[in-house]
Specification:
The chain is an alpha+beta fold. The protein has two domains: 110 residues, Gcn5-related N-acetyltransferase (GNAT) (Aminopeptidase); 133 residues, 3-Layer(aba) Sandwich (Aminopeptidase), CATH 3.40.630. Helix content is 30%, strand content 32%. It contains eight helices and 13 strands. Strand 11, helix 7 and strand 12 form a beta-alpha-beta unit. The protein is globular and about 65 Å long. The relative contact order is 0.16.
Length: 304
């Protein structure tokens, strides 16, 4: 059996890594997206990368990016996120992803990070590999709005000067208002702006009756990155209005991400199409319970 060589944090890997990302995932992106995903630091830890070689040839790669999760009160922990994992077509089904999981756990452990997490869809074979590795499989959903015109209830304001520091501060403060969640990704103001506003693709920011909605235009739909709506009734009303705006201005419906089954149930009743996925959590230090972050609130824009 051919032996794999694991190379961690190789120097000067950007060009090669980016090339293989675009081989594995057609039109993954260019250098500015790579820099935003892998070079940008959130919190105390910088990204770890690895590549797998076989007989001297690169066959797979992955990264662990790090984020902070607030547990309630003053307690904050770091978590690792499996990011940009790829295997070249000729090497698929040869155990590369299983190796990536194990090596990613080691990198988390070396950084004293208790959990390795990932986002996968139910149909992705990676979900089965993560489950086999002992991951806690927490359900999540992408919810796609119907492309139907209905009456808007509120005036929608387009925020065209989101580079203005005062505007950014107001949005961040609304984001920080309590929503009933005790476990959530944690950002200071600069990190929040880097995550949700200063992105590779220029975001669209709307204000609906005091609620901010940040989104990106995708190929087929408008992606809701984050909203400051609080509670299901307000979320329903705001997203109905925003969906009408998206259809009228971009001829596209919206979609958003949730890990709240009550939200999934409510929006499914309203005609949204639901696509099942998982937020997976693996214990990396043989002592932390993944259930500690089982109820974490995550937005679409948190994921990458």
């Amino acid at each position: 059996m051919l032996q794999n060589e694991i190379v961690k944090n190789p120097e000067g890997v950007k060009e090669e890594y980016l090339k293989y990302l675009n081989v594995a995932f057609t039109n993954w992106g260019e250098e500015h997206l790579y820099s935003w995903v892998f070079d940008r630091q959130v919190g105390d830890l910088t990204t770890d990368q690895l590549i797998i070689k076989r007989e001297g040839n690169v066959i797979a790669g992955s990264a662990v990016t790090y984020r902070k999760i607030a547990l309630g009160g003053a307690d904050i922990i770091n978590v690792g996120i499996m990011t940009g994992s790829w295997t070249l077509p000729a090497a698929r089904k040869t155990g590369c992803f299983t190796t990536i999981i194990e090596e990613s756990k080691i990198m988390c452990r070396e950084n004293k990070v208790p959990f390795l997490t990932a986002f996968v869809t139910d149909e992705n074979p990676s979900s089965r590999r993560l489950a086999a590795a002992g991951a806690l499989m927490i359900k999540s959903w992408n919810l796609f709005a119907p492309k139907e015109i209905s009456e808007s209830k509120n005036q929608i304001n387009f925020i065209d000067d989101f580079e203005d520091k005062k505007s950014q501060e107001v949005i961040y403060q609304k984001f920080m208002e309590p929503d009933g969640s005790t476990v959530a990704y944690s950002y200071n103001e600069a990190e929040f702006i880097g995550q949700f506003i200063k992105r590779p693709n220029v975001p669209i920011i709307l204000e609906v009756n005091g609620v901010f909605v940040i989104m990106e235009e995708g190929f087929n739909a408008m992606k809701i990155l984050v909203t400051t709506a609080r509670g299901i009734p307000q979320l329903v009303e705001v997203l109905n209005d925003v969906n009408q705006w998206c259809i009228q201005h971009h001829d596209k419906n919206l979609f958003f991400f949730t890990m709240d089954e009550k939200i999934e149930n409510e929006f499914s009743k309203l005609g949204y199409t639901s696509k099942l996925g998982y937020y997976t959590v693996i214990d990396c230090d043989n002592g932390s319970s993944p259930e500690l972050i089982e109820d974490v609130r995550i937005n679409m824009g948190d994921k990458m």
